[in-house]
Here is the input.
Amino acid sequence: SAVISQKPSRDICQRGTSLTIQCQVDSQVTMMFWYRQQPGQSLTLIATANQGSEATYESGFVIDKFPISRPNLTFSTLTVSNMSPEDSSIYLCSVTWGYAGYTFGSGTRLTVV
Amino acid sequence: TQLLEQSPQFLSIQEGENLTVYCNSSSVFSSLQWYRQEPGEGPVLLVTVVTGGEVKKLKRLTFQFGDARKDSSLHITAAQPGDTGLYLCAPGANYGQNFVFGPGTRLSVLP
Here is the structure.
């Protein structure tokens, strides 16, 4: 399985600003995933990011709000744009190894004030 | 309609008690995975069950995959405070393009 470094681990941001979250994987992977976890809730998939193509967004998430970059097979960023308090959540990146399951970053706890 | 349902949603028990949590679906899965998420961390894979009727043991945790491969259970014997966390089930990562998780069971084990 892979090791994922995700940063920042937490941030407090002003409404209307943007935050970019970075995930670095210690090995090359085809697919990376971004999830949102609202307080006390399970994980909701935001988008799937493949290297060399545009990310595929789930219903309720749009590229203008959550632009994703995937410049190579070991790195991805998720930007939360024009933030509002409703964006306060934990954001997680992950990769998958089939039967080996998902490996997650430790998450970014975002608070928007 | 959610692909996966988990029950109970919340569970608070005393140290030493036994418990069982469930993951159910109307869909058939080639495999199903269980994860535990502790506060401030990402979910960590506990087990993958693949064969209908399969039982896997991980120390005090026993996982079972239903015969029809639509449901699974996790039984914890003599729960400890270190078992506290959010337990999530998910289809095996090769299940179509559905990279989704169940709603989770939040377990609290009190000393």
Chain A touches chain B at residues 4, 6, 33, 40-43, 45, 48, 92, 94, 96-107, 109 (CB under 8 Å).
